[in-house]
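anyone seen this seq b4? input:
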Amino acid sequence: MTAPPTSEIVYRHTRIVRIAHWINALCFLLLLLSGLQIFNAHPMLYWGQAGANFDRPWLSISGGFPDLLTLPNHRDLGAGRNWHFFFAWMLVINGLLYIAFSLTNRHFARDILPDRQELKPAHLWEQIVHHAQFKRITGPAAKRYNTLQKLAYVVVIFVLFPLIILTGLTMSPGFNAIAPVFLDLFGGRQSARSLHFIAANLLVAFLLIHLVEVVVAGAWNEIRSMITGKFTVPPAAPEQTP
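predicted toks r here
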């Protein structure tokens, strides 16, 4: 008879990574809800430098988003901007500290950046099929990020977050005076607003997929590992002997 598989507990996330994760989660939630309130002041999006009521938008949401999804108050643009700017700077500071830590202890190189073997088409396709079937990762492979996780984190950390920060700054006339090059880079203030909105929605999509994967992998085990750092490795199924 085959002995039943045993569980292994590993230290998966360092304290700095866990703190940065929860600060990011809080900041992103409050930025999203305050951002929706700002959007509701003019729920239309344009391309180019200018956009107003009589211009043709590429996106228009009649009535804006429900008040249930906006912070801090009903149709309060000033308060919404104050919340948004405050938590945006919290996110930036937290992100810079996380990047400095990750470069210092090689967290990026060791845990996040995929290697050449992981980027081979056959391996990527295998990962996509595995995730599409909502299969739980077990055994030694569960101790580290899988390839799709790594690619998603690379896009979020090095593409979407810089894009959403820079487009947000580009919407500020004060920042335009300091660095007008970003107006040209993003094609105008209204284009920057549109790109800001698109990047925010891509981050929401990432968050939803992330939450689904947490549930598939075992919600309590995943959440506990991000609180205490300790992760119980799901044992691999024993091989069947003839």
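The chain has one domain: 8-233. The domain at 8-233 is CATH 1.20.950.20 (Fumarate Reductase Cytochrome B subunit). kinda curious what u guys think
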